[in-house]
């Protein structure tokens, strides 16, 4: 990205030891920060700037950081406490204000605080006590140095002052040798500073406006390069992986859609058109379909699969669990079999003669659509003519598993589906090399789930409400964040809650327990019993989060709801509200932070997963949105996906235009940008999985 810039001349690639003042010891400290060359050093950006502009205390709000210049008006007083702690205090006349300046654990400054001395202090202003708790201090009037000091993310023995000195020397040494990567047209269009000026302004700004101006340039450049890389990868992929046109029978597809027992939403119609256009093209489909819980992704999948089947191809659909795959098989068979489509189901449970017969029919082309679990990617599963592959809840499968399924056919079209709403800013970043379709509309007539946030001492009335639903023949989920009791976290756990509810409902309703430590077969069995109505109340950890469809479940209770992110809470809530009856979700929580309270309020205010996903991203940041183990999100030096979403969108559009123009591939002014793109490997077909 920005840090990977190439220069025509070599000084940028010189060892940092060539900078005056950097010896062996300092260079070893810099190496620990990933800094080896002059280029590495000057492309290490500050994460904030401290403002030392002199301010009038009358205009400074309470608890804000302030810098003032004043005359010492009293003898300094020092108090000592245990563990060598101390408190130094003097009276300071700053303008018209006589204030107390307090220094903690800096008693050694006493001799520099003589009455009549002029000093400059920086610290937090306590308006009520008329006190400044000092963090920075110097004797004499404020010097003429910049009012804005850069603060870098350092570690070890490296100090800010030393690092700033090295940075100043490095910038002075490079002259005009840092090549401009952004073409003049873009710099002009967005009024962005040139690279040398931007580096000066980001490291040593003379005003907040300069700092923001420089930041705009680096954010845009970073996002533009990233978007160009993503789109170039997509372009190379499409050119390298020519698909087979699927010339489906439009009349048959229209009749199939007309036969469905419901009207498609406008969102479903839009996505079906996107899929069908791509099926007919020579470009192999590589598309992500994301839709909120209950938005009708399965119906869209059914239409796409049927279209491929009318053209003489086979279809495959893989789901992460047996029960979810079985649910898909039931729905798809119900819709497709009246149209002479042969639907089969394959899982690890399919054994012996039945499995052998199914695989023979598949290889002979007598099965049009195969739905199943990981069993689909076994070597003996051979299709005659696989043309369309769908992976449901795609994040539950590894890249290798998805690749093996794709290779069961000759360049089949591929659709990935997910019920996890992903904010648009992340979708065009994390999935930049895919086309993305969104179902952002729920079917008509679907009742909104009533969501309530209650404190944990309100459990008894909640259980009475749950019992009322159970007496109507409904079912309930109870979700807990931990499996067993923990000394570290004071949160309800599934085993305890299961025992408590078993006693509470004894003789009235059957309570089941499910968690991640159970064997997959045990989980399948418990989920099957719940879906068939043999279990009334299912106590579970978050393993029920994905895909299970139990229309009779109308009540969900989530213990310690602050332990979950917004998107996860929404996914859990989506397990109820799947039938015609009114459903309820109760969040038990005593949040201690404003962010926790905001999350609970958000859940009660909307059922829209995309709104909640944006809120979750805003509250938790991009790094935590997918969880720490999720790969695919780049680490940006300067850009922030939450706050810079407008710049991301602008960069995406500019990247599209640049890559589509002949001028970009030929003109000299785009040479550096082309070089960066080539250097990233995005133009090489070898880089594709």
Question: Please, could you describe this protein's structure?
Answer:
The chain has 689 residues and is an alpha/beta fold. Helix content is 38%, strand content 18%. The protein contains 23 helices and 21 strands. The strands form 4 sheets. The chain has a 7-stranded parallel beta sheet with strand order 11-12-10-13-14-9-15, sandwiched between helices. The chain has a 6-stranded parallel beta sheet with strand order 16-21-20-17-19-18, with helices on both faces. A 5-stranded mixed beta barrel has the order 2-4-5-7-6. Strand 6 and strand 7 (131-139) form a beta hairpin. Helix 6 crosses helix 23 (671-680) and helix 8 runs parallel beside helix 9. The two termini are 21 Å apart. Mean pLDDT is 85; it is low at 1-9 and 626-632. It is an enzyme of class 5 (isomerase).
Briefly summarize what is shown:
GO terms for molecular function: 3'-5' DNA helicase activity; ATP binding; ATP hydrolysis activity; DNA binding. With 689 residues, this protein is α/β, with parallel strands linked by helices. Helix content is 38%, strand content 18%.
């Amino acid at each position: 990205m920005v840090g990977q810039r190439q220069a025509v001349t070599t000084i940028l690639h010189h060892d940092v030891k060539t900078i005056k003042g950097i010896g062996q010891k300092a260079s070893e400290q810099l190496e620990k920060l990933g800094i080896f060359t002059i280029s590495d050093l000057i492309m290490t950006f500050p994460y904030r700037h401290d403002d030392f502009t002199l301010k009038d205390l009358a205009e400074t709000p309470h608890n804000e950081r302030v810098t003032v210049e004043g005359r010492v008006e009293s003898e300094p007083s020092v108090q000592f406490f245990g563990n060598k702690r101390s408190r130094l205090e003097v009276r300071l006349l700053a303008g018209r204000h006589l204030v107390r300046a307090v220094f903690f654990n800096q008693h050694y400054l006493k001799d520099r605080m003589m009455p009549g001395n002029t000093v400059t202090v920086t610290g937090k202003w306590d308006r009520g006590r008329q006190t400044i708790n000092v963090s920075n201090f110097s004797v004499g009037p404020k010097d003429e140095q910049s009012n804005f000091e850069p603060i870098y993310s350092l570690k070890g023995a490296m100090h800010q002052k030393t690092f700033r000195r090295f940075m100043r020397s490095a910038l002075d040494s490079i002259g005009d040798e840092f090549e401009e990567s952004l073409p003049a047209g873009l710099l002009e269009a967005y009024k962005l500073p040139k690279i040398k000026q931007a580096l000066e302004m980001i490291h040593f700004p003379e005003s907040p406006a300069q700092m923001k101006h420089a930041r705009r340039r680096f954010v845009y450049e970073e996002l533009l390069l990233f978007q160009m890389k993503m789109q170039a990868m997509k372009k190379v992929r499409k050119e390298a992986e020519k698909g087979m046109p699927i010339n489906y029978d439009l009349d048959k597809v229209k009749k199939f859609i007309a036969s469905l027992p419901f009207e498609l939403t406008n969102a479903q119609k839009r996505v079906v058109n996107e899929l069908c256009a791509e099926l007919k093209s020579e470009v192999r489909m590589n598309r992500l379909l994301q839709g909120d819980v209950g938005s009708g992704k399965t119906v869209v999948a059914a239409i796409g699969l049927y279209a491929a089947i009318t053209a003489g191809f086979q279809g495959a659909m893989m789901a992460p669990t047996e029960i979810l795959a079985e649910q898909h098989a039931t729905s798809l068979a119900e819709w497709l079999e009246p149209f002479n489509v042969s639907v089969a189901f394959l899982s690890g449970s399919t054994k012996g003669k039945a499995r052998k017969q199914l695989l023979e029919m598949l290889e002979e082309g007598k099965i049009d659509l195969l739905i199943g679990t990981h069993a689909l990617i076994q070597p003996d599963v051979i299709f005659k003519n696989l043309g369309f592959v769908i992976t449901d809840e795609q994040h539950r499968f590894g890249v290798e598993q998805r690749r093996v399924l794709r290779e069961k056919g000759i360049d089949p079209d591929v659709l990935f589906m997910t019920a996890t709403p992903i904010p648009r800013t992340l979708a065009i970043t994390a999935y930049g090399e895919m086309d993305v379709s969104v179902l952002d509309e729920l079917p008509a007539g679907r009742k909104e789930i009533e969501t309530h946030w209650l404190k944990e001492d309100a459990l008894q009335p909640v259980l009475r409400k749950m019992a009322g639903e159970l007496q109507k023949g409904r079912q309930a989920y109870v979700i807990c964040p931990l499996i067993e009791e923990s000394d570290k976290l004071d949160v309800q756990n599934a085993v305890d809650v299961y025992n408590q509810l078993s006693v509470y409902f004894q003789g009235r309703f059957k309570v089941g327990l499910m968690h991640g430590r159970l064997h997959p077969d045990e989980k399948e069995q418990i989920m099957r019993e719940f879906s068939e109505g043999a279990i009334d109340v299912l106590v579970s950890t978050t393993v029920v989060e994905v895909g299970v469809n139990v229309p009779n479940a109308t009540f969900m209770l989530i213990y310690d709801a602050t332990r979950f992110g917004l998107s996860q809470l929404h996914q859990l809530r989506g397990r109820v509200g799947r039938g015609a009856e009114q459903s309820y979700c109760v969040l038990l929580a005593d949040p201690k932070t404003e962010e926790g309270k905001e999350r609970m309020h958000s859940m009660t205010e909307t059922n829209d997963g995309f709104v909640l996903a944006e809120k979750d991203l805003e509250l938790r940041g991009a790094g935590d949105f997918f969880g720490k183990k999720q790969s695919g999100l780049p680490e940006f030096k300067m850009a922030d996906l939450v706050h810079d979403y407008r710049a991301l969108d602008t960069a995406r559009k500019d990247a599209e235009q640049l890559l589509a123009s002949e001028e970009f591939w030929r003109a000299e002014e785009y040479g550096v940008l082309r070089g960066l793109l080539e250097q990233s490997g995005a133009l090489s077909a070898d880089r594709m999985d």
